[in-house]
Structures
1.
Amino acid sequence: MTPLRAEGVHVRFGEHAVLKGVDLAVGAGEWLSLLGQNGSGKTTLLRVLAGLLAPQDGGVRLDGRPMADLSRRHIARRIALLPQATPYVQGLTVRQFVRQGRYAARGPLGMLGESDDDQVRQALRDTEVAQWADTPVERLSGGQRQRVRLALALAQDAPILLLDEPTTYLDIRHQIDVLNLVRDLQRERGLTVVSVLHDLGQAARYSDRVVALKEGVVHADGAPSEVVDADLLHDVYGVAGQVLWITTNGVLKMVVVPD
Ligand code: ADP
């Protein structure tokens, strides 16, 4: 069963057609990355896949059922979204903030009780933010806050994880830590991941599949090594350059060299 499938998705904002018939099936346990220029509709598609934005035409099926028929709670048990920005209440500690992930999945009862449940503790540990559990979120740096936001999504303990630019604000070490963590979760727990990653090399390295959006439709769809090449650079980003593939430590990696 395909856990998440977009069928003929059209989204317009006023006169502006952003998605013009997007078809996308996300396989169970795969990591799929959305590529495309700024403004190509990646975030919009992620929001549609998360059930937060209803398309004007077409729709999304979650586990084969139309998303439009499902309750928010049902969706939250299946899908966690790390958006580009998460609102937070002034004074909320990291632990209180991350516990909101339990609310999404379990409702108000999930927030009761003094002790953290396992998912909250695990999420704080996995993202290496446990040392700030009692610190108000606003006292953290942008990078620390980004990991706390990921912890909130992980605490939801959903099998499908949607990540909108999860490495924003992170230095290179923490970028790699976050991407490695997501890869470990994907492999160990069979998570299905859909991400927007700006770094093409990282998208190629971590994703099983990439889908490039251009002018509101899917321009390319396939394994990174099959899809990411000089033509894609040119056609999707308007950039002339070379795409070089190298293997180190048995892992295929990619670098973009603009002309
Ligand atoms: P990307 O994630 O690829 O940068 P987005 O999905 O964020 O692209 O945006 C695609 C286009 O849709 C942009 O032109 C953006 O301005 C527009 N857009 C996105 N959300 C809204 C909205 N809520 N209202 C009006 N326009 C929007």
Note: The longest helix spans residues 172-189.
2.
Amino acid sequence: MMTPSLMGVVNVTPDSFSDGGLFLDPEAAVAHGRELAQGGAEILDVGGESTRPGAEPVGEEEELRRVIPVIEGLRGAGAQISVDTSKAAVAAAALDAGAGIVNDVTALRGDREMGPVCAERGVTVVLMHMLGEPRTMQKDPRYDDVVTDVKAFLAERLEAAVAVGVDEARVWLDPGIGFGKTGTHNMELLRRLGELRELGRPLVIGTSRKSFLGKLDGSPADQRLGGTIASSILAAAEGADVLRVHDVAEMRQALTVATAILG
Ligand code: HH2
């Protein structure tokens, strides 16, 4: 098993589904990010807008106010910084402040300037699958075949990114676990990750604390570490390249053991 990189989640929001409000204060967010870097995160994913089911969108000014000081504070923390945003102006300011990766859950569909900004800056961009939008995405999501449909979507978004000048070698892809998917859809995607590998780009997987884990055993969002680790390790064994998690040190330990056993 190849050891994937760990992307630690730094949510600077009042309403994220598992840690909303905990790190809204920039100093608390920076301290948390530094702790994740020390715990073994190669990437810190800083986000100022919750994408949980039902979340309301955040204005550009407010999102900038949340994320920019935190990105500035995390420069030199020993990890690359990604910005979790779908707004081109936020991405541009974040890149100026020290981010090197744009993580766009809308896969360049949310803001028509996002593709050009990423192309011009020559940065890595994460394109994620989502069915619908956060406000409504969990209302009866349906697919013909979830893996085939997500794969076709990611291939199309990769092509769209390249068409506006993004270097294909700079694109990472993400099936968007929990974004317009039932538990069965999520588990099917994780089981058949090999099919998404055929797209030829690194795969980012975020199962951390998500509700499909809780549906299996009734655990609340802040008590899903075991489920997060099990699903992430299985994703790694199926070829995930980047694991986006809240609990970096525990995930690092699990990965160390798994790679030692599998070789
Ligand atoms: N999941 C969340 C947010 N951003 N980005 C990528 N690429 N992949 C994911 O799976 C992903 C993501 C949701 O998690 P979290 O940030 O903890 O919650 P919220 O959106 O409520 O802030």
Note: The longest helix spans residues 146-163.
